[in-house]
Design goal:
This protein is mainly beta and 372 residues long. It contains one helix and 28 strands.
Length: 372
């Protein structure tokens, strides 16, 4: 009897071991996935251009702009994306009414826009996307609100970040740093740490007043956008522009470009930031560098500048890679207004920069475009 029980136990353990092996084999070769596929309802066989989730359940998606007779869609999910409902459509709309960016602060309060051009309008909803109202302020490529009243938004082609303190009904400009080594003050994306500290990316500059090497800029404000400073990360990091950034506190953050490369800090970036006066003011009291005219140009354009005292003046033109193309001015000049002609004959179409040097120091740089 005892041997019979032992045999039964052995048989049971034998089959358990086989079952365990089969289960282990299946898990090893077909492991359970951490991802599962979700599907949206038919939206005219079109792809989405932006998606935003407020929490683990509530999210919105929008379709891209295609043509003037297209239909705009806004979809919403309340179950984490397992099911989607079309909440808003507009057929026969002009291009700007086909949204490609969307953002919600809470379940009721949100914004959408088409950021193809800066003249496109901005739309706001206060009832979870059931109705949308056009408001002033223009489109956005990035937007963030710290509460229902105070928020910021940026547009990729703009050199200002816009701020509102009344829920988006009115917006004021907060200019980004310009002048000195800075070539482009564009702002692509930004990341709010709190109501005062914001990090941003998009611009690029020469690494020093005498260098022709171009590097991406990291912006920061600790005054809710009233004043901005910037830094150029270690010049050995050869990244010409950053397109995205995210900071989780004052010290830990990331900045990446479109291609899969970027930078990361655990100490709040470099130890020092550069402060420059906002645009439309003289960066130094003894000169003004004007935008060339016409711009774009083909093949000639005029560059004007003004001096208020006797200086040794130099002006140089560079290509998009920072290579020096031509020296336009290299002499001592007294106070007064000056003009110099730049002839782009023989150069390919593209973006070029001209820098003004006073007594050997680069004091301002502006961008010009040659179009064939």
């Amino acid at each position: 009897m005892k041997n019979q029980k032992i045999n039964k136990l052995s048989t049971f353990l034998y089959y358990i071991s086989i079952l365990t092996f089969i289960i282990a084999f299946n898990f090893a070769h077909n492991p359970p996935g951490g991802w599962y596929q979700q599907f949206m309802p038919n939206i005219g066989n079109r792809s989405i251009s932006d998606i935003f989730f407020l929490d683990s359940l509530t999210g919105w998606a929008v379709t891209p702009y295609i043509d003037l007779d297209d239909t705009a869609y806004v979809l919403k999910t309340n179950d984490g994306g397992d099911n989607w409902e079309i909440k808003y459509t507009r057929t026969g709309a002009v291009g700007y009414s086909n949204p490609n960016h969307i953002y919600f602060k809470n379940k009721d309060f949100g914004f959408m826009s088409n950021s193809i051009t800066g003249s496109n309008p901005l739309y706001r909803t206060t009832n979870s996307g059931v109705n949308w109202t056009q408001i002033p302020g223009g489109p956005f490529t990035d937007i963030y609100f710290i509460d229902s009243l105070t928020g910021w938004k940026s547009l990729q082609s703009s050199t200002v970040i816009k701020k509102t303190t009344n829920g988006g009904l009115n917006w004021s400009d907060q200019p980004m740093p310009q002048g000195g080594n800075i070539i482009s003050s564009a702002i692509y994306r930004f990341s709010n740490v709190n109501k005062n500290t914001i990090w941003a990316v998009g611009g690029y500059a020469f690494v020093s007043s005498s260098s022709t090497t171009i590097r991406g800029i990291i912006y920061r404000t600790t005054s809710a956008g009233e004043n901005w400073s910037y830094q150029i990360p270690d010049t050995n990091i050869q990244i010409g522009r950053y397109n995205y950034c995210k900071f989780i506190n004052n010290y830990i953050g990331w900045a990446y470009r479109i291609s899969p490369t970027g930078i990361h800090t655990k100490v709040g970036g470099d130890s020092t930031f550069t402060n420059i006066k906002n645009p439309n003011t003289q960066i130094a009291d003894n000169f003004i560098l004007y935008q060339n005219y016409p711009n774009p140009f083909n093949p000639n354009t005029i560059i004007s500048y003004q001096l208020s005292m006797f200086n040794y003046v130099s002006m140089k033109v560079y290509d998009i890679l920072g290579n020096e193309i031509k020296t336009l001015v290299n002499t001592k000049q007294g106070s007064g207004s000056y003009k110099v002609k730049f002839d782009g004959s023989g150069l390919p179409s593209g973006v070029y920069f001209y820098s003004l040097f006073i007594d050997g120091d680069r004091v301002d740089t502006k961008k010009m475009v040659l179009v064939r």
